[in-house]
């Protein structure tokens, strides 16, 4: 006859059954959705000490002043760069002047270099251009479209009006895992506008594919068309910053609300090798990644003392993500004078800041109060022991109705990028 179990044995069996049932239930019940990348602890970072970088600023000044050719770059903005596999650096510019640069004095008697067409006329802007820099740091060649007799933008204007402004670029496999690499360039597609849209109505984001090593334009692919969004101020253009982490490329973007001094930052991610594949894009909706851009929400919302400019930059310093932008929420002229920063432990945030201030030098111009700073961009591939290379664009933004072209053509320094070297400092909450 079998001996009956003791009370202690019965309790142990019951507890064992309960544990098995609990574990089984845990396997059957889906886990709550959460962010794919849980932010790990990281040290805060802010802009710290900085110094001007006369070497890079001077390299572009010398290249722009060289009149051995009159179909190459003499000034531009929207400054971005990408290191190519052979050691060259490809620089991408938005609105670009070519033509002829004259020594001082200019027609107004100022001791500045000035610009005309070859025949002495007024130069006009091409909507974009590329400049190839040697591994030694010397700009040597401008890439445009059109014809030799009539150079046009490298990325052609869309049919029916509008233009393409290149923003960030990266080198990635042609397809995931492929040995062949190509350059992928993010483009902002804008169409003409008036009033608050004097710099164009945002329309969508495209990706251009360039072959290597000859940098031949192969294709243009829409990846985030915003034409169906009725309110232009709610349209998001992607590509002001790209950060590659392993096999994922994070793509930062922003909106352009006309009634707010500060914009909001948005985030998408794409597997490496698939930037030109719209189906591969995923957009952050505040909790998870989703395939439709319409569900994206800001990772850094503009409002109050926070927000980003229309163009900003993002880099990593160890585990810390750092965003640099014009201080558009700082009030007064801060949005056209001062660069500030935000930091986070993951690309989707939470973003802390603003923290730190940089007030970069500006060329004097005929009226210094109207000389603006904008579009700070990091160039980590050109960082050295003196710090992160940071560019910023300058322009003359005169009183309403005043044309800028005569001023920036009368002093070519008023429409060329400048560079500085930046070191990080600790930042608190």
TrEMBL record:
Where along the chain is composition biased (Basic and acidic residues)? 63-72
Say if the entry is tagged with keyword Signal. yes
Query: Keyword set for this entry?
Result: Signal
Which stretches of sequence are listed as region Disordered? Answer: 35-80
Q: Signal peptide location in the record?
A: 1-25
Q: Which domain of life is it from?
A: Bacteria
What is the name of the protein in this document?
A: DUF4185 domain-containing protein
